[in-house]
User: Fold this.
Amino acid sequence: MRTSAIRHSLRGLGLVCAAALALSACSSSSTSSGEGGGPVSAAGLDAALDKGGTITVWAWEPTLKQVVTDFQAKYPKVHVNLVNAGTGDKQYTALQNAVQAGKGAPDVAQIEYYALGQFALGKSLQDLSKYGASDLSKQFSPGPWSAVSGNGGVYALPMDSGPMALFYNKKVFDQYQLKVPTTWDEYVEDARKLHAANPNAYITNDSGDAGFTTSMIWQAGGHPYKVDGTKVSVDFTDPGSTKFADTWQRLLSDHLVAPVTSWSDQWYKGLGDGTIATLAIGAWMPANLASGVPSASGDWRVAPLPQWQQGQTASAENGGSSLAVMKAGTNQDLAYAFLKFANAGDGVQARIKGGAFPATTADLNSQAFLDAPFPYFGGQQANKIFSDSAKNAVAGWQYLPYQVYANSIFNDTVGKAYVSNSTLSSGLKAWQDASLKYGGEQGFSTSK
Assistant:
């Protein structure tokens, strides 16, 4: 989260009513050029599909390409314009700019769970209840469903989830005789051994990422964010946050992580040539490895996350996305039909085959899903590890209702520890203070 543009554009989105913070709570000046608000039956959706038209989908997730192909084959009168408007914060900047300008917004947008509440608070998203979306609740696992619904409304459909695992380059581990770490202390020792043996190789990359930091704190049992109605507290001195900061500081202080930005060309190169040996990341990663680093197929494997205490099985979520219908879109009925196809219809199987990790309970509990081999991981049945991780995510984690903004200032606060002699602990304190200050300015009652 690096740009000042996202901070500027999201200030308007972050302005919320102090008396009502549920997803459907606040008013907004965003323009709605979509279709009206009455209930839309299945027959109405069928009629829209038969009439046809064009919808624009902003998304970066690679398996949606096949979903679009399949959708257009089934509904030939509909054309789907799939646009990669940037990953995460880059898309959110463009999305909010389009909403505020009253033109250029897509019909459908991929929005990560942590960001969904802020866009819904800004009234940028269509409540999907008018399509009967609430009837789909039992099709999805509880965590993703709770992230897309609230206060009687449904503001997106879950696309995937992100239970964390350790992706590691087995070829590199074998070459340098490294043992797959079961604790984060062992992970640090592997980092030392690897970099000592090959100064060009690193255990992982990290140039400062808010989502990774919060996920690691989550796994460590931290609860820095507490939200109760209009009351918001932020405390990065809690035991979980401290545990992560102290351990990760050892890696930074000894220059044991590659200062490479994730999703950059250099990052993909490092994943391919073995100079970046592991990733602690969400279960949605296989599709990205297969499409972005095809040359390393067979080299990589998956293991459970290292633990903060030997013998534990704690995990956390990292990422995971929904598809939402934008109020400023021009063809909402077709947009919802695409959402339902992609996330609760035939598109789910297409995405699983492409390496995505589903949020649908039937698939998560399917023996065929659990037993499926991953050719990219040498035939490993990685879904068993991902499924266990999903069950072991530490309960009780919360995000701020303005998490997109908070993440946008991460590099101005915590990020300094990656480029100077300042520490992660001092950076987390600065992030805490800045997040509380912003919350107060938006009408929240804030405390440490």
Q: What stands out?
A: The first helix runs from residue 4 to 14. The domain at 164-317+395-447 is CATH 3.40.190.10 (D-Maltodextrin-Binding Protein; domain 2).
